[in-house]
Amino acid sequence: MKKLNINELNNLIESQKSKVERILARDRKSGRIVRMHERDIDEQKILDILCIKRWEKAEEEGKVKYITERKWYYEFD
Fold it and tell me: What's the rounded Cα separation, in Å, for the pair 48 and 39?
């Protein structure tokens, strides 16, 4: 195995950096971004309220059908 000093290692990293960044950008999924930190309390409360309102609206519009106590059918748009 070849031994490198820190300067050679830094030069190697800098020379390969743009190539690696291009590969990462190309292979990056355009899907949902995963959160790395917990939501704050206010944000959690707001999201809870929004979800409850959306569920109540879906019930009013007849998009939710209760099959059993633990099974539901939700009609997506």
Answer: 12
CA 22, 27, 31, 32 torsion: positive or negative? Answer: negative
DSSP string, 56-73: HHHHHTT-EEESSSS-EE
pLDDT of residue 62 exceeding 80: yes
Which neighbouring-strand residues pair with 62?
none
What's the burial of 63, exposed, middle or buried (CB within 10 Å: 0-12/13-18/19+)? middle
SS3 35: coil
Return the pLDDT at 31: 67
For residue 8, which phi and psi values (nearest 5 degrees)? -65, -40
